[in-house]
Amino acid sequence: MSRPARVRVTSPRMGSAHRPDPSPLGRDLTEGTRLGEVYMRSLVRAQLRHAVAVLLPAGLVLGSLPVLFATRPELNDVRLLTVPLPWLLLGVGVYPLILLAAWWHRRLAESTEEAFTELLEQTARAAATDADRAATDADRATADRAAADRAVADPGAPERR
Amino acid sequence: MNDGTAWSAAVAVAAVAVVTLAVGAWGLRLSRTTSDFYVAGRAVSARWNASAIGGEYLSAASFLGVAGLILGFGADMLWYPIGYTAGYLVLLTLVAAPLRRSGAYTLPDFAQLRLGSIRVRRVCAGLVVVIGWLYLLPQFQGAGLTLHTVTGAPGWVGTVVVAGVVLLNVVAGGMRSVTVVQALQYWLKLTAIAVPAVVLLMAWHGDGAPDPVTGDRPVARQAITVTVPTDTPVHVWRTAVVGVDGVLDSRPVSGQVRLTEGDHRFGAGTVVRLASGAPVPVSRDIEVVRDVDDAGPGTEVAGWAATGQAGARDHPLYRTYSLLLALLFGTMGLPHVLVRFYTNPDGHAARRTTVVVIGLLGLFYLFPPIYGALGRLYAPDLLLSGQLDTVVLLLPGRMLDGAAADAVTALITAGAFAAFLSTASGLTVAVSGVLSQDLLRGRMRGNVAGFRRAAVIAVAVPAVLSLLAQRVLLADTVGLAFALAASTFCPLLVLGIWWRRLTSRGALAGLAVGGTLSCLAVAVTLGGRTPGFGPPAVWAQPAAWTVPLAFLAMIVASLVDAARARRRGMTRAAARRLSVAGPVMVMIHTPEGLDVPPDSGRRR
What is d(CA B242, CA A144) in angstroms, rounded to the nearest whole number? Predict the structure, then answer.
């Protein structure tokens, strides 16, 4: 059995996940139209807000601890289950907090993205409905013109739509 | 270390090495194309991936270094594992999903994608290699130290073993096999640190549960012989008669000597024999012993365990904050972290995996402090010899006897070696990938042979350096790698993902500033010589000034660049398009499952 030819793959860009056919609004996003800009800006700002909403409190809590322990050294004498308080806090206590912050951020980010996706799909659907209506109106206009032509050609015939 | 322990530990190490190679070889059957050599295929599930990331991340610093630092410097060192874990939180919030959506494999990939510049790509590639080598160096040193401590083998044996296994594994299987190996190794490492900790705690309890925190200065519980490896200033806190063979206070000495209370100096290679119950002289590089009488509140707890009193190291508060900055913002820039990220199928999975990683890391880091505290009671001689990194390896032999000591030491040694192997493998893959894709020239570029040649270089340089370089504590060297990553890749990633106006010239300026400044600090710290100005703390923990300066440089340079482009007559819109921000930003920020056309404007 011959070995299959070796293919040189230097940087196979897996790229983003497969995207289905673009909607008009999707095209707005990539082509950088003003509407797309608005949507992008609001999405990015929301995601940045989530990052800050999680990092800022976590950072403040963590960041205050060194100063706290430095200015209140008597905390080292406080013992819980024979372990000094700083050891308990820094060695055990912070980890569930960090995990909680991580979990909370994931939920925030995912729900924002779902909302954004919903919004875009709704807008796309609304745009599609408008387009349909416009198409139906155009058909009706054509039919009216045809009937008018017939009326002109044959004034006696009953109106037929 | 008796023969029984030495042999069982050696067997354990051999077993870890063999299993690693075997699983790697099995993985080789799965890897068929060159692409599998860079990132494992879709076969990797989220939970496997989280274990793999955790397994790869837990290096010598986590396994050995943290406990050693805590033994020497007390509660302030608890910030190291906190920083290691919280760094993933920062990664999750700022970088995880957008980076995965960009489709880039490596940091240089992302740089080129976002900025469209080959020059930035090359600079990033160079940085990946430097950071990778800086992180690999302590892994090899740790391996040599471990084998030497546990089996008495010369220092280079451990280094060669790890380098050899890593090279074989990486060259043969690339990343796919490494993924499986890493996942299993997390659970091995967790077992290897948790089970002995529990056993040792039981032994401690059986010993009457002596309090490691309060109480007297360090005392030898059993007769110990210590070899002082380098010229060491010490503080003897109680007059005692000890056996000294070597140089004491610049005079050659042999036999029993009366060491008076106060400061003394042992020459390199001096052997000190401490009887049971003898006070242990403490190295003044580790601890500045304060007089108990003029101690303030909070020091009924012996000075070592209290916070804010990090022994002989100056400016403990600055060090803590600067360290935190480096660890929190450097994680995202570590080469072996990001590469493993791309095995996630999409941005959603990337986030979820990261949350699991944080849980796994937190679980692991509950255990090293136990060893640090017990070491104060049962391995106080390390405060004299300065070999703090060995506390985890030595405690079972000190606290248990017979078969139990052998078995537990073997388990811990296996875990330590798993730590070196996995981190070194991950780093080697990342560095080799970058070397072969971006930095090698000629026909070797970007194919399998090139990758293999790059792997040899990637392993050889730090291995050789580890044999030559002066010994610095494991966690300190790793901390420097974090500082470098935080000063270079963090600004690039954060600004590249969230700020439209980053230009390639701005990025180059920021990378240059952050990279040069932090490399300077690294050189100063590793070289052991402080320049005339600045306290040692500023050079040992540079992140507090290098990171803000790097950000500033990147921002200012980008704005100046854009202003200059406008002056040259380009419209604002055209200038913005020049940084390929538009389509790229859309691609990395829009959620999965949205009807967005694939980016047509992206340069390939």
Answer: 115
A47: alpha, beta or left? (left if phi > 0; alpha if psi -120 to 50): alpha
Tokens of A161: 């739509």
The C-alpha atoms of residue B105 and residue B103 are separated, in whole angstroms, by: 6
Query: Can you tell me the distance from the alpha carbon of A80 to that of A77, in angstroms, rounded to the nearest whole number?
Result: 10
Q: Does the beta carbon of A73 lie under 8 angstroms from any beta carbon of chain B? A: yes
Cβ <8 Å between B88 and A102 = yes
Q: Which residues contact B343 (CB under 8 A, 6 or more apart)?
A: B39, B40, B44, B49, B52, B179
Burial of B314 (0-12, 13-18, 19+ CB in 10 A): middle
- Does B298 sit within 8 Å of A40, measured CB to CB? no
Nearest to B488 by CA among B249, B235, B130, B209: B130
Q: What is the spatial distance between Cα A100 and Cα A79, in angstroms, rounded to a whole number?
A: 25
Cβ-defined contact of B103 to A16 (cutoff 8 Å): yes
Min distance B39 CA to chain A CA atoms (Å): 10
Q: Report the SS3 class of residue B592.
A: coil
Any B CB within 8 A of A39 CB: no
B526-562 tens-digit pLDDT:
877 777 777 888 888 999 999 999 999 999 999 998 8
Among the partner residues A67, A77, A114, nearest to B298 by beta-carbon distance: A77
Using a CB-CB cut-off of 8 Å, the residues of chain A touching B601 are 30
CB-based contact A30 B604, cutoff 8 Å: no
Kindly list the distances between the CA atom of residue B27 and the CA atoms of B44, B163, B169, B427, in Å, as whole numbers in the listed order: 12, 19, 10, 18
- CA of B343: how far to CAs of A88, B35, B148, B337, B549, in Å? 36, 12, 37, 11, 33
| Residue in chain B lying closest to A76 (CA) | B298
The confidence band for B437, taking pLDDT boundaries of 50, 70 and 90, is confident
The whole-model pTM stands at 0.86
| Identity of the residue in A22, A72, A99 whose CB atom sits nearest the CB atom of B597 | A22
Residue B298, Cβ neighbours under 10 Å: how many?
A: 21
Q: And the tokens for B542?
A: 């540079």
Residue of A42, A49, A87 to mutate, interface with B, max B Cβ within 10 Å: A87
For A118, B93, B592, the CA distances from A114, given in Å and listed in that order, are 6, 17, 9
- Helices B504-527 and B107-115: angle between axes, nearest 10 degrees: 150
| Secondary structure element (H or E) that encloses residue B264, with its range | strand B262-266
